[in-house]
């Protein structure tokens, strides 16, 4: 496993298990199997409604807590200073954990709410509820406004990112400020069939003796982006972790870079109303 060092000195595994849309026993079984086969990074969120199942799997795995990197997120209706404090406690109770490794603001609802929510996360970080804090789905202007009041720099910005949406400018901006990009939907979510139809990816996967999902995950990791592939299928969970035995050539890396289409699957933060 490759690890990246966050701006606070904490190491984060480059591959984590995403749990979006994984419910109840599916979430439990996926997390338990993932930890069994070597995952040490699990990503969840309050709005996924699976924190209890994720926490139960973590407990039942038998892996020492300090060996795991656990992320969860504050959702829109829980934003604001006091609401966030209550939401952090509620998430930890559901997870059955004393702390998480990373708490994120899930979406930027408004500049004011982001400021107040982040201030609560800063305080709860100092109080030991979370080892790190960050954001998700933030664009340039959301980050710039947050910088005006933040006393602790976010460690990550978790955004939709895949071979058809490479976020190069956003990544450059974040890296200049010491913020690591994390990629959700690395397989285009429900549009995954588009990846399998891509002849360039077919050819490269054949060349390296890997699957297309392994290829696109490897590409993002080589860009120093944390990837969060989601699956509840044991064989695919294992496949998604098996990306460290090969490296793309410079030419093939450039070929994959050329596949960017600025193709977004999920809503833009500025147009997200839920």
What does this molecule look like?
The structure is a single chain. With 274 residues, this protein is an alpha/beta fold. The protein has a single domain, classed as Alpha-Beta Barrel (TIM Barrel). Helices cover 42% and strands 14% of the residues. The protein has eleven helices and ten strands. It has helices spanning 24-36, 51-61, 81-95, 111-126, 140-147, 168-176, 192-197, 199-208, 212-222, 234-241, 250-257; strands at 3-5, 11-13, 17-18, 41-43, 69-74, 102-105, 133-136, 156-160, 180-184, 226-227. It has an eight-stranded parallel sheet with strand order 3-4-5-6-7-8-9-10, covered by helices on one side. Strands 1-2 form a two-stranded antiparallel ribbon. Strand 1 (3-5) and strand 2 (11-13) form a beta hairpin. Helix 1 runs parallel beside helix 2 (51-61), helix 2 (51-61) crosses helix 3 and helix 3 crosses helix 4 (111-126). The longest helix is centred in the middle third of the chain and has 16 residues, at 111-126. The radius of gyration is 18 Å and the shape is globular. The model has no long low-confidence stretch (mean pLDDT 97).
Q: Please report the first level of CATH classification, the CATH class.
A: Alpha Beta
> Helicity level, as a percent range?
40-55%
Q: Strand portion, in percent?
A: 5-15%
Oligomer: single chain
Low-confidence stretches: none
What's the architecture, going by CATH? Alpha-Beta Barrel
Lateral strand order in the biggest sheet: 3-4-5-6-7-8-9-10
Shape descriptor = globular
User: What's the domain count?
Assistant: 1
Total strand segments? 10
Number of helices: 11
Between the first and last Cα atoms, what is the distance in angstroms? 36 Å
CATH topology: TIM Barrel
Q: Compute the CA-based radius of gyration.
A: 18 Å
Structural class: alpha/beta
Secondary-structure element pattern, one letter each: EEEHEHEHEHEHEHEHHHEHH
Which sheet architecture does the biggest sheet show? 8 strands, parallel
Question: What would CATH call the homologous superfamily?
Answer: NADP-dependent oxidoreductase domain
Mean of pLDDT: 97
């Amino acid at each position: 496993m490759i690890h990246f060092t966050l701006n606070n000195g904490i190491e984060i595994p480059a591959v984590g298990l995403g749990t979006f849309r994984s419910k109840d026993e599916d979430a439990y079984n996926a997390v338990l199997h993932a930890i069994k086969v070597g995952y040490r990074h699990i990503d969840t969120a309050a709005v996924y409604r699976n924190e209890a199942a994720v926490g139960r799997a973590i407990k039942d795995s038998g892996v020492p807590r300090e060996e795991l990197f656990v992320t969860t997120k504050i959702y829109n209706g829980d934003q604001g200073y006091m609401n966030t404090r209550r939401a952090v406690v509620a998430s930890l109770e559901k997870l059955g954990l004393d702390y998480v490794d990373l708490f994120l603001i899930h979406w930027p609802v408004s500049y004011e709410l982001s400021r107040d929510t982040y201030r609560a996360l800063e305080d709860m970080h100092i109080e030991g509820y979370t080892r790190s804090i960050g954001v998700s789905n933030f664009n340039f202007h959301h980050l710039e406004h947050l910088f005006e009041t933040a006393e602790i720099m976010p460690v990550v910005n978790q955004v939709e990112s895949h071979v058809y949406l490479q976020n190069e400018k956003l990544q450059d901006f974040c890296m200049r400020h010491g913020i690591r990009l994390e990629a959700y939907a690395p397989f285009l979510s429900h549009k995954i069939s588009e990846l399998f139809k891509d002849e360039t990816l077919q050819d490269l996967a054949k060349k390296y003796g890997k699957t297309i999902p392994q290829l696109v995950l490897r590409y993002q990791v080589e860009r120093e982006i944390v990837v969060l592939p989601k699956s509840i299928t044991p064989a695919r969970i294992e496949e998604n972790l098996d990306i460290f035995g090969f490296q793309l050539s410079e030419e093939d890396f450039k070929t994959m870079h050329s596949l960017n289409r600025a193709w977004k699957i999920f809503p833009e933060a500025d147009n997200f109303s839920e």
